[in-house]
Design a protein that fits this description.
This is Response regulatory domain-containing protein. By secondary structure, the protein is α/β, with parallel strands linked by helices. The protein has one domain: Response regulator (Rossmann fold, 3-Layer(aba) Sandwich), CATH 3.40.50.2300. Helix content is about 45%, strand content about 20%. Strands 2-1-3-4-5 form a five-stranded parallel sheet. The N terminus is likely disordered.
């Protein structure tokens, strides 16, 4: 059996948010088993501890357990989506069931079912979020170039 080295040069800094220590430790174990990324993890239990972690930790990926409860989950997502440090970071929600509720869908990049959670599923989500982030950056750069070009034409 051969393995490919798919590791990226920059580590993934994952903020894991939830209120059930047993489930969080299971997710943390799966994060540690992810191959292809060096992963640095911080755990937060609520909005207050998220803000405390953000003082010294710069996540580039956020996993939130939906066991927080509907109100706390929405508050957490709204806080992360409006915070300058985290507003552009991909958020994935770990769900107990496939039942779809309308959360702040614009802020959530992906959903993973906890029942079938594996290190491969987390790897794919991390890989897709990096791709998404790169695409966003590319589109922003193209937009900026085109905007400047159009402004030059209109003033030229």
């Amino acid at each position: 059996m051969t393995t490919k080295d798919t590791s990226t040069s920059e580590p993934m800094h994952v903020l894991l948010v939830g209120n059930n220590p047993i489930e969080l430790s299971a997710v943390l174990k799966k994060l540690q088993d992810v191959r292809g990324f060096k992963i640095v993890t911080e755990i937060a239990f609520d909005v207050k501890s998220i803000m405390e972690r953000l003082i010294r930790f710069n996540p580039n990926f956020i996993l939130i357990d939906d066991n927080l409860g509907k109100t706390e989950l929405k508050e957490t997502i709204n806080t992360l989506s409006s915070n300058a440090k985290t507003k552009d970071i991909p958020i994935t929600v770990l769900k107990n069931s496939n039942y779809h509720e309308s959360l702040t869908a614009n802020s959530i990049l992906d959903f993973l079912l906890k029942k079938n959670l594996s290190s491969d599923a987390i790897y794919n989500t991390l890989k897709n979020s990096l791709r998404f982030k790169r695409t966003q950056l590319y589109l922003y750069q193209v937009y900026q170039k085109r905007k400047d070009f159009i402004l030059k034409l209109s003033h030229g």
